[in-house]
Amino acid sequence: VLGVVVVLSLFTPVFKIVDSNAGRLVTLGWSLYFYVRWQIDCMRIPMKVDSPSDSDKLEFYRMSRNVYMEFSGLVLALFVFNAARLRGRIASLEEPQKKSD
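and the corresponding structure tokens:
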């Protein structure tokens, strides 16, 4: 879902919706969600042991994967927020030039 929002906010006028107050709150809500999940998953990574069983290895790699996925979601949500905000600023700066032309 976030990947689609990135593409839409970068290449279409959807950035206006994302840059509105409601869109900013939703995007920052996503960021907060991913940050909390990332912190929880970081705390849940099992410690390495000397001779791990197959289930121990699987659990370690699964939790490590979840940590990376949650961090990627956090970075992507913050990128959507910043990209829409910057496109909004650019549009507001270009608007007076279009009116004078």
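(Above: one complete record from the training split.) The longest helix spans residues 54-100.
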